[in-house]
Amino acid sequence: MMQSLQAESPQQTQSIPTDGKPPRFGLAPGVKIDHYEITAVLGEGGEATAVKAKDLKTGKNVVMKFFDPLRLGDIATYEHFRRAVAIGRLLQHPGIPQVIEVREDTSTPYLVMDYMEGESLRAIMQEDYQVSVRRFMKLAINITEIVAYCHEHGVFHRDLKPENLLVDANDNVKLIDFGIAVHRGAHRVTWGSMSNPMGTPDYMAPEQVLGERGGAETDVYALGIIFYEMLTGYPPFVAPQALVAMFQHLTHDAAPLNEVRKEVSESIAAIVAKATRRRKKERFADAAQLLAALKNPDSVDTAILHLPDPPLSAPVAQQSIAKNPLLLLGIVAVITAMLTILVIVLLAKH
What we know:
The chain is an alpha+beta fold. It is built from 12 helices and 11 strands. The strands form 3 sheets. The chain has a 6-stranded antiparallel β-sheet, with helices on one face.
């Protein structure tokens, strides 16, 4: 999906991307479309391209998302477009970009949204390897408040990650990129055996890996993974191959936070452990429950740090593989990687 929409320097906003490829759909700084003038190309996803533009009527900066008209012919892609519009109009929160305008009667359909100032949480974590516990608490509460608002209105983001969280100079948080978000009760427009898992491997909940649609508990899991990474400097499950990382969510255990970083309290470690339980029924039911725990950490039972979190049972995995062939590829990749390491070790001994 789209990368974070950060503020650019004047030099950046006047330059065309230098990756050697021509701008998609002819989008480039200086191009005028209706009463908008493009000032920067922000990013490209599989379905759309995002640009920063100036509204020539108001003088304000906006984000324009241009959707590939060929992809919009696909029912699932078109449904994502319609959901993005509907969700953008439904959610009225200062931490969420508002939809200003939608144009479907053009050769390249687009929607216009508020431009959100800020630095991505990813950039912050790259600058500050381990976020201080004090700052973490402020950011975690701000992030979870926005997600709780979404859940209250029946919207599940399903792709929470540091790139989709912007932080301003006062540590106020903005949540962007609702490209694969879903509203409670919305019809599913893909089939389990024909659809790729949706999300980002490092932050995907086990049920997403197994081909489920995902809901409030899915967002809670992603938040738990993000919180773990903020405090330790790395996500709990990392692998060179995406499918291997996805499989680890089903089988591997993360070291408790308070063991990895001593200044993290058992209460905070317990909150993250509960948010990232493998079975969704064992997590916080939604972001509101997670938020309540963050605001009152001492209310959380730290015994969860010592409870086993068994890998998903064989019957569950077998059923999921039948629904999602990509999971089988992940299992094969894990086994192949393990055999490769074994061969290297044996050859080294000789």
